[in-house]
Design a protein that fits this description.
- By secondary structure, the chain is mainly β.
- The protein contains no helices and twelve strands.
- The strands form three sheets. Strands 1-2-3-4 form a four-stranded antiparallel sheet, with no helix packed on it. Strands 5-6-7-8 form a four-stranded antiparallel sheet, with no helix packed on it.
- The N and C termini lie far apart (36 Å).
Length: 138
């Protein structure tokens, strides 16, 4: 159904990401477990399901013609990469940063393409900070 005529539930939407390579938008329902896509002027469709027990509050993405689209999000205190390959295969990977005590916060995540880096809030010992994760070499 066209996006203007489609409901995806009562929870609000997370951030909306535009992917110029496909002329499409990616978005999710807050606290939901599915990423949606819609081409400009097109229909609302499922992009990918998150694993059981995962919820998305905020995400960001990257895309390249070799590896497909990567969705980065925090859930249950961990940082994840969901990859949807060009062929449509979906894999989900936990991205570790060396501290089991530092927890990824759900309140936001940003990508800086100029240095291939993610920025996101973390919590540790009752304190909040901004962490960065280098995507080079993944």
């Amino acid at each position: 159904a066209p996006i203007a005529n489609t409901s995806i539930g009562t929870n609000g939407l997370t951030n909306i990401e535009f992917e110029p390579a496909f002329n499409q938008y990616l978005f999710a329902r807050e606290r939901g477990n599915m990423i949606y896509q819609s081409n400009v002027g097109g229909n609302l469709e499922k992009f990918a399901d998150l694993p059981s027990g995962h919820s998305v509050y905020s995400f960001t993405h990257t895309h390249d013609v070799t590896n497909g689209t990567n969705i980065y999000y925090c859930s249950n205190g961990s940082l994840y990469r969901l990859n949807k390959s060009i062929s449509g295969t979906v894999t989900n990977t936990t991205l570790n940063w060396g501290s089991s005590e530092m927890k990824c916060d759900i309140s936001g995540i940003e990508y800086d393409a100029s240095i291939n880096m993610l920025y996101f809030p973390v919590r540790m010992n009752g304190k909040t900070a901004i962490a960065r994760f280098n995507l080079s070499g993944l």
